[in-house]
Structures are given as structure tokens and as C-alpha cells.
Amino acid sequence: MSDPRLPVTIITGFLGAGKTTLLNHLIKKHPDKRFAIIENEFGDIGIDGALIVEGSDSIFELSNGCICCTLNNDLNDTLTKLMAMGERINHILVETTGIADPLTVVQSFLTGEAVQRYFRIDSVVCLVDAEHLADLMESEPEVRNQLAMSDVVLLNKTDRVHADYLATLRKTISQMSPMAMLHETTFADVSHIDIIDTNAYGGRQVGTTVLRFDATHRPLVVSNVMAPAFEKKAHTHRHDITSEGFEFAGSFDIQRFNAWIQGFLYFNSNTVYRVKGLVSFAGYDQLFVFHAVRGTFMLEKYEGNFPGGEICKMVFIGKFLDRELLQNSLEQLLDGPMPG
């Protein structure tokens, strides 16, 4: 059964990554879509002013049938206005400001009964500048947060860097967002890439990405390889945002799991960004998908394909994750006598 709610694609990325160019590409690529485009500042949107046919109260209609909204007020107020437009729109694009952590926008769509009833997140798309990514990750924590929250990463401006440097960037991105789909682009051209209607927040897709994740994955120690166009002293570092994966044969006790995960997310809401899981529970004959964004989480039956058997597989993305502590905690949740 298809989800009747309006899909929302959240586009994030630091200043200069190419988000406005990406927006224009998406509008041209999907002429059948009646987009509502939510911007922080209309003056920065970069959409041809000739497309604007009318405007009132911070909502502008474009000649191609799309709606453009300025976000000078509260996001919930803007969403309320969009709800009243009914079938005039069928997909929402939200561009976050370049210096912002996208978490606030994501949580706006995950909390509030009215918003959840009318909208659903399709995916979070992060656009990054290949030429400046390494430096920005060192100096701007927002860049690391944007990567950690993403379902799709577009590594843009790849024509400006050396192939060896590009390979290092791919490894670094996989460290912070190991389950995101990574695509390389120039000029934010996505004509060959599907980033709309991916349903990355749907239970089936979450479960599929967890199955695909290598639970033996360890955080990478990355040595910067600088592009030949300039020289800097190479250095080795481990970024504060990492991912940790765990896989256990058997099933969790559902009461232990619920009690632990709620407390864990509450007390670590500032450091744990996302958690995804595909788990068996004792007494249930079906797998369940778990997905958490900070303190907000969902648990639902997994509708995808699975070869069978009991499995508990969890992936955590956040700051300064303690692998040993997580391992011990998850083992305590397995069905059977509590480990001594």
C-alpha cells in the first residue's frame, strides 16, 4: 500500500557546495512534479525571477507550476500554508541554510501529529564540495553533522580534484555516513542520478540499508591526500563523528530493548545522530526495522526480503561512540538469562 503523504526531500550542504544549482537541475529534470520549494531566504534562491508569476505572504508561484516559499518565519507556519494547497503540490524540496545542522528541519517532520499525518521525509541529500571538503570538515562541525544525517551524498565539483584525493574523500564520507548512497557529480548535475522518490526513511529501505551494511566495519583513520594543485603537509586524524555496527545471532528481548533504547537515546541525544537496526524479537515471527534520529524513533515490521533466521543488526552514527560499551549493552538485550 502506497503512502499518501507528501514526500519531503531535504537538501543540505555547506555554503558554496552547489545547492541552488542542484535545485534548478531537479526542477528541470522533473517537469511532471509540482514542487513546493522551501528556502531560508528567497533572495538567495537563484531561481530565475522570470519564472515568478505571482506572490503573496512569502509564497510565490512559478510559471512551471511549482511553489516557492520563503522561510523568514517558522517552518511549521509554512507547512500549514502548504497543507491548504492540496493537490497543487506533490513533492516538497527543503533547502537548509549552508551553515545549519539539518537536524532541526528533520525533526520538524518527525514530531507533531498534524505534520506527520500530512508529510513524510523521502530522504536527506547532502551536497559537498570536493575541492574544499577536507578543510571544511576540520573547521566547520556543521559539515560533519550534515554528512552524518544524510541518506544520499553528492560529491560535487569532482572535476577540480585529483583522482587519488577523490578516493580519500570517498573513504572519509563512508566513515561518517556508511549507509548513504554516494554519487560523484560536476556542476551538481543529477540527470543520471535518482535522488527523488527514494523513500530512504521508509521501513523497507531502512531495513535494506542495514542488511547491506558490513557490521565488521571499523572507523577509518584517514590520511589526507592533497590535490596536486596545492601542497599541504599530510596529516592523520580521526573525526569525532564515526559509525559502529553490530550483528548478533538470536533475538532481543523486546522489553529489555525498549527500556534500554529509550534511555540510551534520551541520555545521548546530543551525541548520537542516527541509529538504524533490523532486529528479531523473542516471541515474534517477523523482523522489525528500527530507525532513530536523535531522540525520535520508530519501530515497524520489515516488509522486505530476508533469507530467514534470527538476527539483530544495529548501526550507530554519532560522536565519540564507545564500541565496547555499546557491544556490552546490546548483549544484555539478547533473549535468555541476563549475562553475568
From TrEMBL:
Keywords, sorted A to Z: Chaperone, Hydrolase, Nucleotide-binding
Gene3D superfamilies found in the cross-reference section: CobW-like, C-terminal domain (3.30.1220.10), P-loop containing nucleotide triphosphate hydrolases (3.40.50.300)
Catalytic activity: GTP + H2O = GDP + phosphate + H(+)
InterPro entries, sorted: CobW-likC_sf, CobW-like_C, CobW/HypB/UreG_nucleotide-bd, P-loop_NTPase, Zinc-reg_GTPase_activator
Domain of life: Bacteria
MF annotations from Gene Ontology: hydrolase activity; nucleotide binding
Recorded GO CC terms: cytoplasm
CobW C-terminal domain sequence ranges: 241-334
Similarity comment: Belongs to the SIMIBI class G3E GTPase family. ZNG1 subfamily.
Protein's job: Zinc chaperone that directly transfers zinc cofactor to target proteins, thereby activating them. Zinc is transferred from the CXCC motif in the GTPase domain to the zinc binding site in target proteins in a process requiring GTP hydrolysis.
Protein name: G3E family GTPase
